[in-house]
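Re-running the complex after MR caught last week's input typo. The corrected sequence lines follow. Everything else is unchanged.
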Amino acid sequence: MLEAAIGKMRGGGYKATPQRTAVLRALAEEQHQSLEEIRARCPGVGLVTVYRTLDLLGELGIVRRLDLGDGARYEMAEDHHHHAICESCGDISEFEKCPLDPTLLPLEASDFEVRSHSLEVYGRCAACR
Amino acid sequence: MLEAAIGKMRGGGYKATPQRTAVLRALAEEQHQSLEEIRARCPGVGLVTVYRTLDLLGELGIVRRLDLGDGARYEMAEDHHHHAICESCGDISEFEKCPLDPTLLPLEASDFEVRSHSLEVYGRCAACR
DNA sequence: TCTGTAATTGAAAGAATTTTTCAATTAGCG
DNA sequence: CGCTAATTGAAAAATTCTTTCAATTACAGA
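Corrected-run output:
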């Protein structure tokens, strides 16, 4: 999985530096991390490099940036999924099954070409009820 | 509409100051404004007061904060709607018809109590195609 | 394997955004 | 109309992200 990402970098003409792979490894350890959480997992890498690597991985489609109300978070893009955010404890969980009904999308009719979408569900998780 | 919001403020024990109503009026003029756009519409109101008013209106459910990738934006909560964001020109349009199929939501089964959701659709608008 | 070079790194400075502090002002109750 | 707790805003601080630039390094080609 990391190999695939590293290949994508090299394929794009970018160097696979130790710093970049360290950030990648950090991202692979847990989803939805804040910048400081990522930084804590790759202590040797400078702040600026982390930012730049996240940008690069974002452009390559390897990483996605989230903004769920409490600042920026980052996750490996991997498979299509959505987020369920508990308003009580802040826990973020993922679900794969996409509840979007494409036939209900009125946008194509209005000449808007849909490329992607993101869906966030807010509520209370099992533990908090 | 502004009256309703002002009533909600007073009902919550908050004062309806000229600054707060000025921010409300600014918000009513256009959806998805950045902080500076809002500020430009109520020049007499101090920066801190704008931030605090947006917080307050958010707590009261009158205003919603968005984060669509280019920093914070604010909109009157009003009716349930979603956003279509053009990746080319950045234009944000709204659509009311919710394409969520509730029967596909697998969350209730996992004891997650859904309270609300937000859906953003990314792509290219008619003008940019 | 070695070398040259363009890409990359990171410290420091800067910019942008949001929050805190606190003294002065004011909305609205009685 | 006066009192008081809530509100305001200027200044300073905190936080978050970006730019700059000299030093370092990955890796393509010899």
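None of the earlier attempt is carried over here. Chain B touches chain A through 37 residues (CB under 8 Å). Residues 13-15, 17, 19-20, 45-49, 52 of chain B lie near DNA strand D (CB under 10 Å from a C1').
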